[in-house]
SH3 domain-containing protein
Amino acid sequence: MTFVLGASLMLPAAASAATSAATTVGEIQSSVSFRSLPSTSSTVNRYLKKGEQVVILEQVNSYWYRVQDVNGAIGYISTDDKYVEIVSGGNEGATSGNATIVASVSFRTGPSTDAARIRYLSKGETVTITGQPNSYWYAITASDGTKGYVSTDSQYISANAGGSDPSGGSGSAQGNATIVASVSFRTGPSTDAARIRYLSKGETVTITGQPNSYWYAIKANDGTTGYVSTDSKYITVNGGGSAPGGNPPGGSNPGSGDHAALVERVIAAGMKYWGTPYEFGSDRDTTTTFDCSDFVRTAFREGASLILPSDSRQQGDYVRNRGNVKTDWHQLQRGDLMFFMDYHGTKASDYAGINKATARITHVGIYLGDGQILQTYSTESGGVRTNVISGHWDYRFLFGGSVL
């Protein structure tokens, strides 16, 4: 990512005041959804256009920035650099950081030990924690402006006293949420995860993320990170605001049989493998690499306890047998499977004359809504990731539908 000086961003008064100290300005590279929450299922406030500039207030997790537009409106946009490029202030303040490396540790391109190593961070280096996608990884910015991921293990990294909180809050002493009734504080977003301890009524905590509709990722007053139920009988967001990446406070969680909740669990299960390398014919008994159908199968097995067939053509037959197949992807719902034929080129004319009703399925992915797909399709693409359905993906689409 190239850093150049921004020129013409006209900011409202509140944002202008903020720019006096290490403000990060981004320029929109391609039209992108400006959303009410860091989720593709949240409301689109409007579409930001190419050339617009925004103030990046924080990086909520590896997928979303919280930003302020030129009108002063605050919302969320994708962190993908095909949509936004940092044009000013991207590495300001990084030398002071909010955390210190305690022992040499791998600095990786994604939140996975399978992700490529950028380099080793050295003992004594200071870094800025910008997010925490799960309990095992911090998203950080190094002193040279490089962004990546590092283990949250305290043997490798220590948050500096008085440093800024990764969630963008004012520190865990004040927190951004209060425990309403005693609740389990766990090592992972699951009732099967180990209990760290019970949080007590009246404790304040800082919500740093929300991996799905049932769990908040939080930091307790003592700096311990873990997970707690989003149920409003246990926790309430201070000030009536929305929790990072989640539902409005006081909102009820869907029941376990609710289709929408099941879809979100599947997508959350898939998202946790972001960046996992691609391998054609990957081992169905491991999660170290995936091909397209193995990835889809894993997401539904872990998120919905549903065992799908092991290859894309059989998965296509599974959807067909359920009926209600859609050949226009715009009619698909979040969580539906999408099936594609072979790549023939980048132009619509490259696919002219092909009978899609009889074309062979060669690829599958999970529809996220808003014209995006969660998938893995090549080593070069970087493994598991999201893509916009345009160009050849649009031309190659055969049909889609739900398996739930």
